[in-house]
Design brief:
This protein is an alpha/beta fold and 439 residues long. The protein folds into two domains: 325 residues, Glycosidases (TIM Barrel, Alpha-Beta Barrel), CATH 3.20.20.80; 80 residues, Sandwich (Immunoglobulin-like). It has twelve helices and 16 strands. The strands form three sheets. Strands 5-4-3-2-1-8-7-6 form an eight-stranded parallel sheet, with helices on both faces. A five-stranded antiparallel sheet has the order 9-10-11-16-13, covered by helices on one side. Helix 1 crosses helix 8 and helix 11 packs across helix 12.
Length: 439
């Protein structure tokens, strides 16, 4: 994932100009030396509102970070952080033979948690592709390595079979290439990396049927600046125009340097503030890192709180798990998913297929969602015996918690006052359904 590291020199070595099937044209070399704006905003590539509706209805997805980095179990940045040379790190590919990989079990765990979509890492910054890739530099992919398996193919099938939407994560950055760290000084090397990225995105968008989400990461160059700063290099308006031809309705995040169909916010920090205008997604990991690291997992209540705080502000939540080297979801992460699912089965009506409002969130106290004539008040903490809400245009005709507890309410002078017996309140989020006489 995105970590702002101020790298002053390339610590990796790779002879990219020998033995590669990829060739660099004069046009590509010239593009790498250009300083001009690539016009990366490309508003014409944005999906219309009707094509974003399913994503805004979905609210909750499961992220999967899994790759060679699960073997040393030091996180997905192990290769860079521990300065492992590419040729040494590549030896992990000869050991990557997961005994218990089962995409069906992953998909079922996500489905049981209430997820409406999944996103899996097809390739992280280490450059190893988790699919059979014809354009992978030096055949650095799971189809050619010890596993001899296309993990993305199994994943896509399992997710579809459970009625969830399919998302694919792809990082165009590749630490094997010194040109990533110095694209202007090493333009031929950088162009090879770029050509690989375009080729692999083309494969992912062509070979696995309908893809619902394309989740880029790692567009920023030399670990400096932002994804948008690197748009001159990646030319994401060209890349994503090709994506649109192959997958016209795929929802694309902004991390290729293009503005994207939705915004992202990464990390487990609190979500605060008012309802946000542009659709956005909060993404964070249940475990101690994105890739597998042994250790404690977030509790279900912690995850639910972040999900709710995102949803009441017009966001989705993409919650990450990190399977181990054998393909198993760590037991404590699995238990967290099960706890989320238990809560969603009771309270999901106030999450899925809703829109934020009509009340602006009050940080740490409450937020709201709505659908039709129903308003769902998510009470995160009670300021006292009751909670006072702003006026509604319609009249409240009934109120109850989604867990079935009675709600006392009054509506006079515009304001609405609700209360629930302390013993019947949810420890994380008491969801009160207000039925009104008007949308």
């Amino acid at each position: 994932m995105h970590k702002v590291l101020m790298a002053t020199a390339c610590l990796l070595s790779l002879q990219c100009t020998q033995g590669s099937a990829l060739q660099v044209t004069d046009e590509e070399r010239s593009a790498l030396k250009s300083q001009s704006d690539s016009g990366s905003l490309a508003p014409e590539l944005r999906l219309p509102a009707e094509d974003m509706r399913w994503w805004q209805d979905a609210k909750f997805g499961i992220f999967v970070h899994w790759g060679l980095y699960a073997i040393p179990a030091k996180g997905e940045w192990h290769m860079h952080n521990d300065k492992v040379a590419p040729q040494e790190y590549a030896k992990l590919a000869t050991l990557f033979k997961p005994k218990h990989f089962n995409a069906d079990s992953w998909a079922q765990a996500a489905k049981d948690a209430g997820a409406q979509y999944m996103v899996m890492t097809a390739r992280h910054h280490d450059g190893f592709a988790m699919f059979a890739s014809k354009t992978s530099y030096r055949n650095y992919d799971s189809g050619h390595a010890a596993a001899h398996k296309d993990f993305i193919a199994d994943y896509v099938t399992a997710v579809r079979q459970r009625g969830m939407r399919v998302g694919i994560y792809y990082s165009p950055m590749d630490w094997r290439f010194p040109g990533y760290f110095d694209p202007k000084g090493l333009p031929d090397n950088a162009a090879l990396m770029k050509k690989q990225g375009y080729g692999q995105v083309r494969e992912l968008m062509s070979n696995y049927g309908k893809i619902d989400i394309l989740w880029y990461d790692g567009g920023w160059l030399a670990h400096r600046g932002s994804d948008a700063d690197a748009a001159w290099f990646w030319q994401p308006e060209i890349l994503n125009a090709e994506v649109r031809k192959l997958q016209p309705k795929v929802v694309i995040n902004p991390r290729s340097g293009w503005q994207g169909d939705f915004d992202t916010e990464e990390g487990g920090g609190p979500v605060t503030g008012p309802i946000r205008q542009k659709p956005w997604e909060k993404t964070f990991s249940i475990g101690p890192a994105w890739g597998y690291v042994a250790g404690d997992a977030m509790k279900p209540g912690q995850v639910i709180r972040l999900v709710v705080d995102a949803v009441v502000r017009n966001g989705n939540a993409l919650v990450n798990i990190g399977p181990d080297a054998d393909g198993r979801i760590p037991e404590n992460q699995l238990q967290t998913l099960q706890g989320i699912g238990a809560w969603m089965r009771v309270n999901g009506e106030g999450i899925f297929n809703t829109r934020p409002g009509p009340f602006q969130p009050v940080d740490g106290v409450y937020g709201s969602t709505m659908r039709g004539k129903n308003v769902y008040v998510h009470v995160l903490s009670w300021p006292g015996d009751s909670l006072q809400l702003p006026p509604l245009q319609g009249k409240v005709v009934s109120a109850s918690t989604l867990a079935g507890a009675p709600v006392r309410f009054s509506q006079s002078g515009g304001d609405i006052v609700v209360s629930v017996d302390a013993a019947r309140r949810d420890a994380v989020d008491t969801v009160i359904k207000l039925e009104t006489n008007a949308p």
